[in-house]
Structures are given as C-alpha cells and as structure tokens.
Amino acid sequence: MQITVHKTPTKLLGKELFIGKEAPAARITKLDGTANVIGMIAPSIQLLIAIPSLKTEVCSLGAKKFNTLLKKIKGVSAVMVTTDDAEFLKGYKEAQGIDGAEIVIDEERHFAKKYGILIGEGKLKNRLARAVFLIDKEGKVAYKEIVPEIVDEVDYDACLQALTDLLNEKRKGHTHENWMSL
Predict the structure, then answer these.
(1) Which of 55, 70, 122, 151 places its Cα 20 to 30 Å from the Cα of 172?
(2) Inter-residue contact 59 to 131 (CB < 8 Å)
(3) Domains of the chain
(4) Given the residues 48, 59, 81, 119, the one annotated as active site
(5) Interacting residues of 130 by C-beta distance below 8 A, sequence separation 6+
(6) CA distance 28 to 91
(7) The dihedral of CA 74, 47, 40, 178: what is its sign?
(8) Which residues of 81-114 are buried (b: 16+ CB within 10 A; e: fewer)?
C-alpha cells in the first residue's frame, strides 16, 4: 500500500489489515517507560490512533479533536500511537490536557509494521502514516482508515459513527431463551 507525503507517492511497509480479520498484538512503550501490548482481544473496544508526530500542526490538531470527542464516549480504550520521544510527549500531554486517550510510543515500530502503516521512504521514513483502527472486543478489526495524504486529517465523522455503531451493537449468537425453545 502507499500514501502520499506532500503529494509524493510513498510506500508503506508492513502487513495490510482487513476489516473483519483478527487485529494483531503490537508492543508499544508507555510514557513511564513500561512495555505494553495493544490490539488483539481486550475487555473493551479499542480505538488505535496512529499519529506521525505531535510536533506538527495537523497531528496536534487531530490529537486535540480526538481528545475532546472521546471525553463524551464511554466503553472504549483509546490509544494515540506515535514515534515522538517520551520527554516531548509528557510535556505535550500536560500542556494540551490530553486525558481522553493514552499516548504511547512505537519505539521499535512494532505497531507500524503489524498494522501496515510504517512509512518506508522519504523525509518521514520510519514514522507512522496517519491512521485509525477500531478493534472490537473479540479482537477483530471493525474499522480502519489510512489517510491517503499525510497532511490531511482523518474522517472523524466516519470513525465516530463506526465507534457508535460498534458500541450499540448487540452480540449475536444463541441466548438462553433460544436454547430453551429448541
């Protein structure tokens, strides 16, 4: 897959994910330096927000928008993933009041490779493409958007609609009543 960086075609490295398929587990680093895993099956719906760099205007704007929107939504674990350094991110989080999502670092580019969003060339080589992934409680990819042009924002409305739909979805399968009526 490829995106454009300031209209220059740029190849993305890693495995492409498909909606309905299993979301891979990916190692990330929390701001306190501890390791963690995101993706796969989890107790709550996960919204994984890939951010090239919070040092840029578009990325910072996107983080603030998501932060504001996520404060109104319950039942989702939101994680902003970037490759920026921990010291900068700690200061950014505090200065911008980011508390609607956790900010983590993809130090080894494990997340980027597993989710197919590692920029493989050019001036943004080894950064993440701008993307969002919605992972349901069963660990399946329910929604994804990889922004075609790095300087554009994600489609917040489509992402939030997919999240709302997932939060309101009734579990399928047999119920006790169905079993009893057989």
Answers:
(1) 70
(2) no
(3) 2-168 (3.40.30.10)
(4) 59
(5) 50, 51, 52, 58, 59, 62, 146, 147, 150, 152, 153, 154
(6) 19
(7) positive
(8) bbbbebeebeebbeeeebebbbbbbbeebbbbbb
d(CA 15, CA 120): 13
- What pLDDT score does 171 carry? 55
pTM of the model: 0.91
Query: Could you read off the pLDDT of 52-106 as tens digits, one per residue?
Result: 999 999 999 999 999 999 988 988 999 999 999 999 999 999 999 999 999 999 9
59 catalytic? Reply is yes
pLDDT digits (tens, 9 = 90+) for 12-51: 999 999 999 999 999 999 999 999 999 998 899 999 999 9
Distance CA 107, CA 89 (A): 13
Greatest extent of the chain over all pairs of C-alpha atoms, in Å: 63
Tell me the DSSP string of 62-106.
HHHHHHHHHTT--SEEEEEEE-S-HHHHHHHHHHHT--SSEEEE-
Cβ neighbours of residue 169 closer than 8 Å, sequence gap 6 or more: none
